[in-house]
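Researcher: Please predict.
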Amino acid sequence: MGGIVSSLIGGDATAEAAEMGPSESRVLVFHSSNRWQLHFNNLKDSNQLLVVNFTASWCGPCKMIAPAIDAMANNFTDVHFAKIDVDHLQDVSQEFSVQAMPTFVLLKQGKEVDRIVGAKKDELEKKIAKHRS
């Protein structure tokens, strides 16, 4: 049944919704609200942590922290990482009340458990470690 829904909206939520960046990043990049929603719904009942990085192509601090996010994604293999450009998926950004970039929203079982506003690498890493188990 999932295959039918996926084919209607354009593919598998996890495999095709994301583009793997250089050096095989584990950060899934979403360009479609429907695909994001499928991914989010797939993880809603999971106890695994999902870190959503709300970013923008024009955001300097977002670009500066991007390599650190890739490193965290490769280090915390039990955590899911997603990247959403606020200019491309404005509805998702509004749903999470994002007002500054970068904003990192940490979700577990579909609910926000923490939030970091700004390129605060050390704080983000500590909060991921805290919420991942």
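Model: DSSP finds five helices and five strands in the chain.
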